[in-house]
Write a structure and sequence with these properties.
Keywords: Isomerase, Signal. GO terms for molecular function: isomerase activity. It holds the Pfam family AP_endonuc_2. The strands form three sheets. An eight-stranded parallel beta barrel has the order 1-2-5-6-7-8-9-12, surrounded by five helices. Helix 2 links the parallel strand 1 and strand 2. Helices cover 44% and strands 19% of the residues. It has 284 residues and is an alpha/beta fold. The protein folds into two domains: 31 residues; 248 residues, TIM Barrel (Alpha-Beta Barrel), CATH 3.20.20.150. The N terminus is likely disordered. Helix 2 packs parallel to helix 3, helix 4 packs parallel to helix 5 and helix 8 runs parallel beside helix 9.
């Protein structure tokens, strides 16, 4: 009888441990549902351009985001007055890597970056390789496209053409696709859904047009459509058809980074980014 009772208690205890374990796993997945889709939800450091890179990482961490897209020219901070970019010294690069490790944040992308000539583009790619960057977001001169194509293959790094609003060169997917034609498969698109909206373009239709070449997204929602002066609002509360965008990315089996780029309320936009990420995760 005692032996039977002990066995029953042991079974109940094992089931409780198993249930707790499953519950913990489930809660983690629910908190970060984008991980199941291989979406790397993070922030463009430009969102926090008024601050140092070190301070930007603090803000990104507080938003429960684990990826960052750095931009050229941001002061590193944490005791360093150096700027982000290929000109960073060895000690500066080590500092950046240490800051990232401390916050458990991955430097996935770098941009939007340009260069004057092939020599400078080479330095950009060398820097990206050293820092572990997977995607360079670029807006190159047309005569530099073949240079970038070669460097993508040489360094095994993706380069994604970014769209600023009309009349910038890559404002429409038609121009992006024409620029990619015949070039490295490591070249693709860095889609800014907000800039498409500013240019009066349907972001879902644009995503469909770029299927297979979509490497990275600058993610934002805007208060108005077709207005270059439109400003950011919390994702899902503006004119971006957020559910349709999510559905299209899922249909394409998109795998890459979604950079929160909140270009409004510059001095205090951390909570705006946090709420936007929460809204996206709720939909997912």
């Amino acid at each position: 009888m005692i032996k039977s009772t002990f066995l029953n208690l042991l079974i109940v205890w094992c089931l409780a441990i198993s249930t707790t374990s499953c519950s913990s796993t489930k809660n983690f997945s629910n908190a970060n549902p984008e991980e199941k889709l291989d979406w790397k939800l993070g922030s463009q450091a430009y969102t926090f351009k008024l601050f140092t890179f070190a301070e930007a990482l603090d803000k990104i961490d507080s938003c429960d985001l684990r990826y960052v897209e750095a931009f050229p020219g941001q002061i590193i901070g944490a005791g360093s007055t150096e700027q982000m970019g290929y000109g960073l010294s060895e000690s500066g690069r080590k500092l950046v890597k240490d800051l990232l490790k401390k916050k458990n944040i991955t430097l996935h992308a770098f941009g939007v970056v340009g260069a004057k000539n092939e020599e400078e583009w080479e330095k950009v790619f060398q820097f990206a390789k050293d820092m572990g960057v997977k995607v360079l977001n670029v807006e190159p001169a047309e005569e530099h496209l073949d240079i970038i194509s070669r460097l993508c293959d040489k360094y095994d790094i993706k380069a994604a053409l970014h769209n600023h609003p009309q009349p910038s060169k890559y404002w429409t997917p038609d121009v992006v696709l024409a620029s990619l034609n015949g070039r490295s498969s490591r070249m693709g698109a860095a889609a800014d859904v907000g800039h498409w909206m500013r240019s009066g373009l349907d972001p879902v239709a644009c995503l469909k047009q770029l299927e297979g070449r979509l490497f990275h997204l600058h993610f934002k929602d805007l208060n108005t459509f077709g207005d270059k002066k439109a400003h950011d609002v919390h994702w899902g509360t503006g004119k971006l058809p957020l559910q349709e965008v999510v559905n299209e990315l899922k249909r394409q089996k998109f795998s890459g980074m979604l950079s929160a780029e909140y270009e409004y309320n510059w001095e205090n936009n951390k909570d705006d980014v946090k709420q936007s990420a929460a809204n996206l995760r709720a939909i997912l």
